[in-house]
Amino acid sequence: MEAERFSTAPGDEGRHGNGNSSFGQAPSLSHNGTRHDVYISSETSPLIVNAEDSDDENLEDVDETASPQISQAPPDKYYLVFSVFVLVGMTTLLPWNFFISLTNFWDYKFRNVSETLKTNGSTAKTDLQKEFTSYLSISSTVPNAIFVIINALVGQRFSLMKRLTLSLSLMIVMFTIITVLAFVDTDSWQRPFLITILCLVVIVNINSAIFQGGSFGMAGKFPDRYMSAQMLGQAIGGVFPALVDICIVSLNVKEEDVGSVCFAIATVVLFLCMASLIWALRTPFFKFYYENSERNNESTSVPSSTTSSSGPSTLKILKLSWVYLVCIFVTFSVTLTIFPSVAVLIKSETSASGSDWATKYFTAVSVFLLFNMGDLFGRGLASWIKMPGQSKFGKVILLIATFSRLFFIPLFLNCNIDSDKPRTVIFKSDADFIAFMGLFAVSNGYIGNICMLHGPKSTPEKELQESIALILIAGLVVGTGVGSFLSYPIVASL
């Protein structure tokens, strides 16, 4: 999503002090003493989860024996490694946001080729134009969610750096193919082109999930500000594609060329991330924290054979966290039901005039840019005021606020949707839609972050905190999938 995938900070009292990080993590200790970090990302994507690698193979290009155990870390000169973490965080959400933000390009690709009128004019959208964003949402969120969970469960069996470099390399290859396809005239084979793009999207999001999990596992080995750097990068990863789309459109680039330019930019950013990551691996600063983390993992894993392998009771976990589980599931189900599939179908009140605002900027600004900015603001606001609290009254208020978001569905459906079917429009004004979208985005970021802030802290037990965080992530994953599937029949009925 974020378009959004959602980033939250459960605010653990241990490694994070007072837990006031605007974008953060939920570190906790498992039964064998190994620290695990759980992360969530927006937007509208949809999710980032990671169990920090405790048995990774030694980092390639790093000589463990050549680095003495020193107590003071070397400096991060000019904050270059910090900047690399920002870029890595940005890369985790770049594919999803570039795909969903290029509505003018996809409308051109799936237009009625027998019509001479422009796609965004008075002519109603074709079925492929209306349904593509819903297809895209399903093919993005479902494989991403599945492989995020798989990565959390079995990812630690494979080398962290191999997971990062291999997944990023495959993403670069897929985006290169997509960039080439964007140049091709597909008017005579629109449906096969649709199937091809969706297959590539599935592959991209599988690798994106693996890269997300690995990158947050890597960031968990560094000081807190480097995790914040990656969270900042995720926020930029939601806003950047929308800004790129707006800038390209303002330069009067033809609709058929917008996709090729944007995908080429995305490919360059992925290449830059790969080069920066390879460079960072060789810096003394990176080696110091990575190697120390590996040694700590080895030392904490020693007593694991004497501890019980039985986990906490699922019933106990659900009893402690069911309110936050329900809230995060409903929140993301509602969000993915509307955004982006339904939201991109809403047109400006000035669309009949053919103004630049209506044809070029309305969707890019009032849907994608506004949602990402609002979601980011909501997450930051939740981290600051942290209300409602964890009391029974606070949980009731949170439930009311969560289910109140269901009213956004009829509100958006009664906006000025571009449809060839007769329908009554109640909210015709652009101002109405923008107000709804602003509240929709802020509430998504706020409620989601509140759930991840308070949910794991429903108990002081570290092992239960980790388990609750994983349960909440499962709720978020299921919510994004359910919302994506619900969007299809709604779009088909319009």
Would you mind describing this structure in some detail?
The chain has 14 helices and two strands; from the N terminus they run ββαααααααααααααα. The protein is mostly helical. The protein has one domain (28-493): Growth Hormone, Chain: A (Up-down Bundle). A hairpin with a 5-residue loop joins strand 1 and strand 2 (35-36). Helix 9 packs antiparallel against helix 13 (430-454). The radius of gyration is 23 Å and the shape is globular. Mean pLDDT is 79; it is low at 1-70, 116-122 and 300-309.
By CATH reckoning, the class would read Mainly Alpha
- What is the rounded distance between the termini? 22 Å
Main sheet: strands, sense, barrel: 2 strands, antiparallel
Number of separate domains:
1
What structural category do the secondary elements indicate?
Answer: mainly alpha
Mean pLDDT: 79
Classify the fold: give the CATH topology.
Answer: Growth Hormone, Chain: A
Assembly annotation: single chain
**% residues in beta strands:** under 5%
Using only C-alpha atoms, the radius of gyration works out to 23 Å
CATH architecture: Up-down Bundle
List unreliable stretches of 5+ residues: 1-70, 116-122, 300-309
Count the E strands. Answer: 2
Helix share, percent? 55-70%
Q: What is the assigned CATH homologous superfamily?
A: MFS general substrate transporter like domains
Order of helices and strands: EEHHHHHHHHHHHHHH
Instruction: Quickly count the helices.
Output: 14
Q: Label the overall shape.
A: globular
Strand numbers in spatial order across the main sheet: 1-2
